[in-house]
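One-letter codes give the sequence; the fold follows as tokens. An example follows:
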Amino acid sequence: MRELSHRRRMLVLAICCMSLLLVSLDNTVLNVALPVMRNDLHASVSGMQWTIDAYTLVLAALLMLSGSTADRVGRKRTFQTGLVIFTLGSALCSLAPSLTALVGFRMVQAIGGSMLNPVAMSIITNVFTEPRERARAIGVWGGVVGISMAAGPIVGGLLVESIGWRSIFWINLPIGIAALVLTARFVPESRAPRPRRADPVGQLLVILVLGTLTYAIIEAPDRGWDSPLIVTCAALALGGLLALVRYEGRREEPLIDVRFFHSAPFSGATVVAVCAFAALGGYLFMNTLYLQDVRGLNALHAGLWMLPMAFMCFVCAPLSGRLVGARGPRLSMLVAGVAITASGVLFAVFDVQTSDTGLLIGYVLFGLGFGMVNAPITNTAVSGMPRSQAGVAAAVASTSRQVGQSLGVAVIGAVLAAGAALAAAGGMGHAASPAATAAFVDAARPAWWIIAGCGAVILLLGLVTTGRWAQKTTRHAAALFEEGAPTGQTSAGAKA
């Protein structure tokens, strides 16, 4: 691909950011609309979990396939296909007559969404070849997440209160159509020089593992952890994971290339992505229920309460991108780990949600932490790897995000549903009694400890995976790709 002018590169970045805005805005808008949707569709808490996790699960399961497909058939072509499917899925969601139909149409959205973010990131990686400029571009990319977090709850609240929850899907239509037109005109086509073959067995195993694990977590509070169905799903998830690791390690061109994980920074970024987005998914889900069920706020006022968190994310994401470009990922990850941990501890130990000031402090800290963590995840995932593997590397990072968000919503929802708080909090849109509020706070305490634990893992990995030893492992992993070493070999024994 020929070198593009600075203006053209900025335009490509803007178009790619439109796809991220589509996916990110869709999630944040949906969260604030959950209680109203639950009333209208007569759904349970687990039903609301599925409106989020059906999307993130399909997204996570197909991201690797989309990344490798884009490397093979063309990133621009795959990106355009994703825009068409996502926009169509959004239109179908707005017409859904039932919860089952909505969950199904969310899966259609996810098929298109799987072709957007990782493919857009690989386009950015191939357009911005200079490391510092690439880091700044990724910072802008991360800033779009902040924009979606800031705009999503407010836009969602306004639409839900004025028109209805179905209108939250309408906003995707003009953005999707505009992005499609601009992509056809300005985004260059690119492919990997040596694209990999499809891996249908690996793809099916990924779907099996993610689907059965999430189903077991979400449905266990209702069915019981000793239910034969839940035990069977857990066993299938474990068996599928073991089979996936064994199969992929022996395949010449696997869906998930184990050579990536010879790099400590890449492996660390994968775990950090899971932890950060598990914390985000659980945080948004829990606070949406708390603000509307327990405090009795409507969708708009709940969105306004979460604005400080979104504002900090919006401010810190581009700052993190500049820090990563100038000083590397360590500082951003350390700040993120400390802030997310502190926010979780404040809620778990000091019950700051019971006071307005404490709630705002907790939101600001979490927004600071999440805003700082996104840029180092993406930059670490693609930096140091061959450009020919950009689509797959970006897809691994994006898959980790979606897996994390799915698990966060599933686990946090299961923790809340396991207590008596949600039943006591009762009807949507009505303030709960003091006893029910106290019950909700008590039931949420383990969930806040989970979020604090996610922050602690981010802090630890920020220390371990950003030093000289870690950079040495990245160079070794890149050499394995350049040498064309078989993927089944270990780092000690890999040879050309």
About this structure: The mean pLDDT is 84. The CA atoms of residues 80 and 184 lie 8 Å apart. Residues 6-41 form the longest helix (36 residues).
